[in-house]
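ok so i was messing around last nite and threw this chain in just to see what happens. nothing serious, just curious
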Amino acid sequence: MRNKVITIAGPTAVGKTKFAIEIARRFNGEIISCDSMQLYKFMNIGSAKPTREELSLVTHHLVDIIDPRVSFSVAEYQRLAKNSINEVFSKGKTPVISGGTGLYLNSLIYDMDFSSNPGNLEYRKSLEDIARTHGSQAVHEILKKEDPQAAEIIHPNNTKRIIRALERLKDGEGNVRPFSGVLKETDDYEMILIGLTRDRQELYDRINKRVDILVNQGLVDEVRELMSMGLTSDDISMKGIGYKEIIDYIDGKCDLETAIDTVKKNTRHYAKKQLTWYRRYDKINWLDISEYRNDEEAIEELVSWLEKRI
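result:
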C-alpha cells in the first residue's frame, strides 16, 4: 500500500466524487483533488465542489485553497499535490487522486520538470514577439509542427508554457528534439489509474441536469460576487466553463437562457475532450458505469477489482 496511488479520472459529471469518496473510505484513503477549478476559494457553485457532507466523509486536499485573483500554474499544482501525496503516505494511508484536469494529472503521472531553464534568450524573444503580434495560437501552431504530441498536452492559450516547450525542443546545436518523447512515468509511486465513463447520452443528460442544479443553487449570484471582487473574464480563474458564459449574460451580451444553454453545450464538448485525453493513457483501466444496474453495484465491482491489486 505504501507506494500505491489510486486515481479516479473521467469526464465532468460522470460521478468521480461519489466513487472517489467510497474508494477512499474502503481503502483507508484521503482524497487529493485534481480539478483546476475546485482549487479556488469563493468559486463553490460553478466548480461543483464536494458538498460539506461529502467533505466530512473523508479528508480532502487541494480544495478551496487558492484566491482566484492569484495566478496558479501546473507546476504549482504538481508541487502541492506531491506534497499532499507524501503527507497521506506518512499517515500510512492511501492517496486517492480525483478530478478531470488532464494537465494536472499528467504532472502526477510523468516526471515533468517545471524548473526554470535559461534557454535560448534570442529564440525566446522571437517567440514572444510572434505571440504578442499574432497571438498565442500562432506559437501553438509552431509547436504543432515541431512536436504534435506536446501541442496536444499544452493548452493553446498557455503562451508561457508553449514558449518553454519550444525552447526545450532546441538543444545546444539548435536541433529539435521531441518534448513529449522525453516524458517518462514517475517512479515516486505506483499509480493505479481508473477511468470512469457512461453511455454518452446518459452522460450528456447528467451534464444538462447538473447545470440546471448549479443555476438553481445561485451560480449567477456567485459570478456577480466574484466580479464585485474585481475579477473579470481576463482572469484565468474566470475562464472556466460556467463562469465565462454567465459573465457574458451579466455584461448584456446574451440572455440568461442562452448563457445556460451555452454552458451545457460547452460542458458536453469539454467532456468529450476529456475522454479523448484519457484514452491516450495506455495503463488506464476503464469502468463503464452504465453497464451496471446502479452506481453502488459499479462501486462494489471496482472495490473487488482494486482488492486484487493492492
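not much to say yet. The chain has a mean pLDDT of 91.
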